[in-house]
Amino acid sequence: QVQLVESGGGLVQAGGSLRLSCAASGRAFSINAMGWFRQAPGKEREFVAAISWSGGSTDYSNSVKGRFTISRDNAKNTVYLQMNSLKPEDTAVYYCAARTLPWFFEYSDYSRYAYWGQGTQVTVSS
Fold it and tell me: Is residue 79 within 8 Å of 56, Cβ to Cβ?
């Protein structure tokens, strides 16, 4: 089992920045990829970003590309999501997820992730 604990959400004005963190524990050595997803009220959970655990390959949804950066610190078993130029439409609960499946296999599909954090609220005011 892998446990994930997120931190760093909050309230920020449009144009501001936040950094989310997600610390993995338990069988963290089994992780091959981690991702960030978000869910706004009344909407489906959507892919934000993903990163391979070994090589650091990354990918982003078109809606955040150029504004968000995903990174990882293997020594700390932690993944980060740096969010810049935030917009009101970025408001959502952000979830960290981890999986043992290979990085390249449908990493934007939330159903392919076995482990989830509790979620952290990000609110961007206009």
Answer: no
